[in-house]
Design goal:
single chain; alpha+beta; 5-stranded mixed β-sheet
Length: 318
């Protein structure tokens, strides 16, 4: 009996140390996620794809530390709490006030299995954006989108399976080659157009980067990463000062695979807007980015017939 009582505090201290170590590890992953190697299996990108969800780990550790009454663990939890707050708490702040000249945009992967393209188009138009970017446009569904959007969006451009609808005139429309080298079949998922807004010309890019997969070999994102590099070079060469990128980029803004884009463009300052999968969104892979402008707030719109949620954002120009 005496020996059992003597061992209990030691076990309690051991659990407290284990909780403290777990808290420090969570904080280190948040604060230093860029140093996590991407080989093997692109583990760094995989971590960054779900980085905000480490907040749930922090909550679980906090509850466990309270239950165990572990002061060292509670103190250690200050590290991951501070790191998460620094990275993500700002996204919860209220949206900034609208300014004259702001551009409102909607981005949506409409899905090549969408059974109601006309209804989807009407739902997107209900948000009254200036621009609507669509991906996974099938030739059979295109007339439905064109007809439903024609009245409010008289200007549009389509290249392959991506399209852009606009309230303002479009010029300089051309495809953007973002096809990975190993893809040999027909594949057109990028376009560029100049939007003649009342406040100046904006170069608008619409893109759909290749999908990623999680398998036994890790995070398969090589094609997406290559496509992101090609798109990044095109944007770097863009002569127009003001640029907006709308697209299903199959990656979050924290994912280093999108660094060729996030290093050149501003990402949303407010809003989480998790967009995929629509039934239970866990990540925002539908993105709005800008150059010479601030993406002040991004939000999701109601579900359509797609497996993605639409996202809407407001861009203020410098």
């Amino acid at each position: 009996m005496t020996r059992t009582k003597g061992r209990t505090p030691a076990r309690g201290r051991g659990r407290g140390r284990g909780l403290a170590v777990a808290a420090v590890l969570a904080g280190a992953l948040l604060a230093c996620h860029r140093v996590v190697p991407n080989t093997p299996g692109r583990l760094g990108s995989l971590l960054e794809a779900f980085l905000p969800w480490l907040g749930l780990v922090i909550v679980a550790l906090f509850a466990w530390a309270l239950l165990r009454r572990s002061v060292p663990a509670l103190v250690a939890l200050l590290l991951p709490v501070a790191a998460w707050t620094y990275l993500f708490a700002g996204l919860w702040l209220p949206a900034p006030d609208a300014r004259p000249g702001d551009l409102t945009v909607v981005q949506h992967n409409v899905s090549d299995e969408n059974a109601d393209p006309a209804g989807t188009a009407r739902a997107l138009a209900a948000a009254q954006p200036d621009l609507i970017a669509l991906e996974e446009l099938l030739p059979a569904a295109l007339p439905a989108y064109e007809q439903a959007l024609a009245a409010a969006y008289p200007y549009h451009a389509v290249q392959g399976t991506v399209g852009l609808w606009s309230r303002h005139p479009l010029t300089g429309v051309r495809p953007v080659d973002i096809k990975p080298r190993e893809i040999t079949e027909g594949w057109s998922r990028g376009l560029r157009a100049e939007v003649r807004t009342p406040h100046g010309v904006v170069a608008a890019y619409v893109a759909h980067l290749p999908s990623v997969r999680i398998g036994v070999r890790g995070f398969a994102s090589a094609w997406r990463d290559e496509s992101a590099r090609l798109l990044g070079r095109a944007i770097a060469d863009e002569e127009q000062r003001a640029v907006v990128l709308l697209g299903d980029l199959n990656g979050t803004v924290d994912d280093r695979g999108l660094a060729p884009l996030t290093s050149r463009l501003n990402v949303p300052e407010r809003g989480f807007a998790l967009s995929f999968p629509a039934a239970f969104p866990v990540a925002r892979i539908d993105q709005v980015m800008a150059r010479a402008g601030t993406v002040g707030h991004v939000r999701t719109l109601p579900a359509t017939g797609s497996d993605h949620l639409p996202v809407a954002a407001r861009i203020s120009w410098a």
